[in-house]
Structures are given as structure tokens and as C-alpha cells.
Write a structure and sequence with these properties.
It contains ten helices and nine strands. A six-stranded parallel β-sheet has the order 3-2-1-7-8-9, sandwiched between helices. A three-stranded antiparallel β-sheet has the order 5-4-6, with helices on one face. The longest helix is centred in the N-terminal third of the chain and has 16 residues. It binds 2'-O-acetyl adenosine-5-diphosphoribose (OAD) and zinc ion. The site of 2'-O-acetyl adenosine-5-diphosphoribose has 29 residues, from helix 2 and helix 10.
């Protein structure tokens, strides 16, 4: 069982206070979120086993440019299913805490840049602005000519949709394994990480590069690195972390943001 704030009150409040002190002394903060921040909204993370119809496949097998080339109908119907799963999900207290923080950043005399690997729009739904490194679930474009496809596509439509310009297959505007990150988003994220005094990694397994390299970049430039994850990440990235908050984001972020404003 993951620890929760109630069973580890003293330790957690000391850890949170130390994070608050570090953040209060900072001018530039870069936050990177991953699938874990949306877990408490009921969206399964990537490395959770898939359920139901898609049990046989791993997300890595499908979120993949080669998979789409080989079997576009399969990958398209998976994304339509995912869209159906995500469409009624709401932001949770972690998303709202980051929105409050973004709104208060100027008063707190620091800058906060929010970068996400998530393709859901829960940061936007809660009122935050976020840089999307891996694209956005609700956008589409043509896999042949690249033209954006602006019409809404009902999540019930599991058959492939054709591009009105060239007849190519419409695909979700998501960065797949084997593809480059969007240039501008990646440049902005790198700049935010490299100039940060504090880098906060929230709900990511830190396994997927280049996004996972942002914490290393920040650290190399002298930032303090804080991680919020009930299952702290291991391996190389672990040595990067100065303060580990091993709790669910929806529990720890509201407390942290509340204390920052005091
Ligand atoms: P992962 O599924 O790899 O990792 C999710 C992390 O969230 C894990 O480390 C969990 O321990 C943690 N977690 C779970 N519940 C949490 C909670 N309540 N609060 C905080 N943390 C929690 O997801 P990502 O690291 O985001 O790429 O995955 C990175 C990329 O791999 C994704 O953007 C996606 C995927 O393939 C693309 O689609 C291109
Ligand atoms: Zn086209």
C-alpha cells in the first residue's frame, strides 16, 4: 500500500515544510507532470496494466508510429476508446492546486512554468496553462499531408476517418514513440528547466526520454529537484532528487500550495 498523509503525519509535514522553504527561496520554478497527476481523476497511468478490451496490448505497443503504419485501424480505435475513457474525467485537487499556484506566482514573486507529458486536458480544465510535450488527445491531423483536422470526431466512431484534402488517415495529434517532440514546446521546456532554481517532478516514472532528461538538465544547472510520487522513481534519476515527497499528488499539492501562500 502506498503511504498516505494521514498515516505519516509528522514525517510528511516536515518533508513538506522543507520543500516549501526551498520553493520560497526560488525565483524560477519548473514543474513537470506525468500520468500520475491524473491518476486520482480516474485515468489509468501508462504503466498500469490495461483493462477490458485492450488487456492484450501494452500502451507502448500502441502509442507507436510503427504500430500506426502497420495497422492504423487498430491504433485509431484504441485512441477512440481512450478518448471515451477520458472524456468525462475531471481535474483533481492536484490540478487545482497547481492552478492556484500559477495564479499566485506573481504575488509570491516567482515564476512558475508548468510542463506536462500528459495528453489529457485536465490542467486546462482546471484553469492552468501548460506546455504539452507529448501532444493533445483531443486534436487530430492527417497522417499523410499533415493538415490539421478541426472537426469534432465522436468517440463512438471507431472506423478510420479520411482527410478531406488528400484522403489520408486522420490520426490523433500525439507524439508517439519514434517521433520528435514538438519543437517549440521542447525548446520552452528546456529553457524553463535550465533556468529553474527548483524543478518539481510530479507523477512521472521518469522512464521516457527526452522528457525525463529535463530533471537532469535542471540539476546540472544547479536546481534543487523535488519529486512527488507515492512510488519514488528508482535508478539514475533517484540520485537527482533532493526532496522526495512519497505521497499522492492530490494529497500533497494542496497542502504545499496552501503553505506557500502563508
Ligand atoms: P507512467 O505511467 O510511466 O508513470 C506514472 C507515475 O505516476 C508512476 O511513477 C506512479 O508511481 C505515479 N503515480 C501514480 N499515482 C500517483 C499519484 N496519485 N500521485 C503522484 N504520482 C502518482 O507515466 P509517465 O511518466 O507520464 O508518452 O509516462 C511518460 C510517457 O510515457 C507518457 O507521456 C506517454 C507514455 O508512453 C506518450 O504517449 C508519447
Ligand atoms: Zn491529408
Amino acid at each position: 500500500m502506498s503511504p498516505s498523509l494521514t498515516d505519516t503525519d509528522k514525517m510528511s509535514s516536515e518533508l513538506i515544510s522543507s520543500a516549501v522553504q526551498v520553493i520560497k527561496a526560488a525565483k524560477n520554478i519548473c514543474v513537470l507532470t506525468g500520468a500520475g497527476i491524473s491518476a486520482e481523476s480516474g485515468i489509468p497511468t501508462f504503466r498500469d496494466k490495461q483493462s477490458g478490451l485492450w488487456e492484450r496490448f501494452s500502451a507502448e505497443e500502441l502509442a507507436n508510429v510503427t504500430a500506426f503504419e502497420r495497422d492504423p485501424a487498430l491504433v485509431w480505435s484504441w485512441y477512440q476508446w481512450r478518448r471515451g475513457e477520458v472524456k468525462d474525467k475531471q481535474p483533481n485537487p492536484a490540478h487545482f492546486a497547481l492552478t492556484t499556484w500559477q495564479q499566485q506566482a506573481e504575488a509570491l514573486e516567482h515564476r512558475l512554468c508548468l510542463v506536462t507529458q500528459n495528453v489529457d486536458d485536465l490542467h486546462e480544465q482546471s484553469g492552468s496553462e501548460a506546455i504539452h510535450l507529448h501532444g493533445e488527445l483531443w486534436r487530430n491531423h492527417c497522417s499523410s499531408c499533415g493538415a490539421p483536422y478541426e472537426q469534432d470526431i465522436d468517440t463512438q466512431i471507431t472506423e478510420l476517418v479520411s482527410c478531406p484534402k488528400c484522403g489520408g488517415h486522420i490520426r490523433p495529434s500525439i507524439v508517439w514513440f519514434g517521433e520528435m517532440l514538438p519543437h517549440q514546446a521542447w525548446q520552452s521546456a528546456q529553457r524553463a528547466a535550465a533556468t529553474s532554481d527548483v524543478f518539481i517532478s510530479i507523477g512521472t516514472s521518469s522512464l521516457v526520454y527526452p522528457a525525463a532528461g529535463l530533471a537532469q538538465l535542471a540539476k546540472a544547472k544547479g536546481a534543487m529537484v523535488i519529486e512527488i510520487n507515492p512510488n519514488p522513481t528508482g535508478g539514475q534519476s533517484n540520485r537527482l532528487i533532493d526532496i522526495q515527497l512519497p505521497y499522492p499528488a492530490g494529497q500533497v499539492l494542496p497542502i504545499l500550495v496552501n503553505q506557500l501562500a502563508r
